Amino acid sequence: MSFLWKEEYATGILPVDMEHKVLFSITGLLADAIRDGTDQQAIHDFINQLIEYIERHFAREEEIFSASEYPDFEAHMKLHRDIERTMHNIAERYETDPSAVSSKELLRFLEVWLSQHIMGTDMKYVPFVMESDAARAAAG
Ligand SMILES: [Fe+2]
Ligand SMILES: [Fe+2]
Description:
- The protein is mainly α.
- The chain contains six helices and no strands.
- It has one domain (12-139): Up-down Bundle (Four Helix Bundle (Hemerythrin (Met), subunit A)), CATH 1.20.120.
- 75% of the residues lie in helices and 0% in strands.
- One fe (ii) ion (FE2) is lined by residues 61, 76, 80, 117, 121-122.
């Protein structure tokens, strides 16, 4: 899969879409570095950059959808925590021993998290945010 953001991934919620674009671009840079496989420092840095940005984005997203009537907010937050935990686990293992994390495992995780989360799970809160004045205000 390519890690390029496409119009069909748009939620219509401006800050969310801006952050998703950045997540796609960091993930794309990380995927390129993994495929190339030569620069372990770059892979390490992109993993940490991605974790930092993911955590910021999840916090922002939770602030927005919690202000709406979105009924699955708890399950969604749990998925966010799961992704964060997996990313931290990958980062720790990579730091200890880069060969302990296979590029296939990492690429597969990135693919799944982008395709299932951003294009699947995230889309479910969109109608609730759109119809909530408080949630739209939280989105700025
Ligand atoms: Fe998201
Ligand atoms: Fe999300």
